[in-house]
C-alpha cells in the first residue's frame, strides 16, 4: 500500500493511498493534545483538500480519522471563541465567530453532499464539531469506545453543526431529549439512532484500511457506496460484542417525558425525574444545571429543522450561533466551565418560561451582515 503523506506536524495531515485499482484520500485530524478539537485553521485545511478531492476523478473515496486513541474530535475551539466574545464590545460584530461558524458549517455541508464514499472512523470522544464531521460522512464507523454527545446545554450554545437537522430526524423524541440533556451515548446508541452505520473494533483499523485500498472499484461510480458498505460489514462487531443501548432501553420513557407542546413542561418533566437509573439521572441533572436559553433554542431548532432542507438548517444555525456570541449566555457558560472553572454560570434566565418569544426571535435574525452560506 503506497502512500504520499503531507507534513506530519500539520494540524491536519493528508495522504494518498495508492491501490492497484484506485486511489483513496486520507485526512487525519492531528491535534491529539486538545482531543483534536477543531480550530479555524483545521477547518480551512480540511475544506481546501476535500474540495480538491471531491472533483478529482482519480480519487474513489475519502477516509477521515484522527491521531490518538482518546478522541476523534471533542468539538470546536471554544476557548478561542470565548476570547472573541470577550474582545467584542456591545453592539459590535464578532467577526471571528462569523468566520468560524460560517466556514465550519460550509465544511459540514460539503461532507453531507460529497458524492463519493466518505468513511469516518469514529473512535473515542465524538462531541460537538466532531459529531458534525461524523454525521456528514456517507459511511459512519463507530468503534467500541465511541462516546458521543452534544453537550452545549452546559455552555449556553446549542447543538449546531447540522444538529437541528439530524436530531430532528431521529426516532420519536430521542433527538430532542439528547439536545436538551447533552446525554452521552455509546456505540450501540449511535447505531440505533443513525449516527453510526457499522461498529468495528478499533484494533481492526489498519486491516480495514488495507482492505479498502485493495478494493476493485466498479467502473460505475454509482456502485462505490455499496462496495464500501459491503466491505465494512465484513468487519462489523456482533451484537453480543456491544454494550447495551441506554437510548433503546429507555426509549419509551424518553418519548413520554418529551410528549408535550410546551417546552417548560418537558424541561420540568425531565429535571423532576426520580429514577435510580444512572444514565437517566445524569441526563436530568445536566439539564437542571444547564442554560435555559439553550433549552429554548434546542426546542425551537428541533421543531424548525424537521421541515427544513440541510442547507437551510446550516443557514439558520449560522444566524443562531453568531447571535449566541452576542447575547451573553454563551460567553458566561464557557467562562464558568472552561476559563474560571467555578461551575457557577450566571445565565440571564432562571427558566425556559422566562424567555419571551420576542427575545427568542432575535436569534433567528441576520446579525446585520450578509449570510455567508447563501450560496449552499
UniProtKB/TrEMBL annotation:
Which E.C. number(s) belong to this protein? 3.1.2.4
Specify whether Hydrolase is a keyword of the entry.
yes
Q: Which domain of life is it from?
A: Bacteria
Q: Where does the UniProt annotation place the signal sequence?
A: none
**Which reactions are catalysed by this chain?**
3-hydroxy-2-methylpropanoyl-CoA + H2O = 3-hydroxy-2-methylpropanoate + CoA + H(+)
The family database entries (InterPro entries) matched by this protein are listed as:
ClpP/crotonase-like_dom_sf, ECH_dom, HIBYL-CoA-H
Q: Which CDD domains match?
A: crotonase-like
Domain (Enoyl-CoA hydratase/isomerase) spans 24-363
List UniProt keywords, sorted A-Z. Answer: Hydrolase
What's the protein called, per UniProt? 3-hydroxyisobutyryl-CoA hydrolase
Identify the species of origin: Alcanivorax xiamenensis
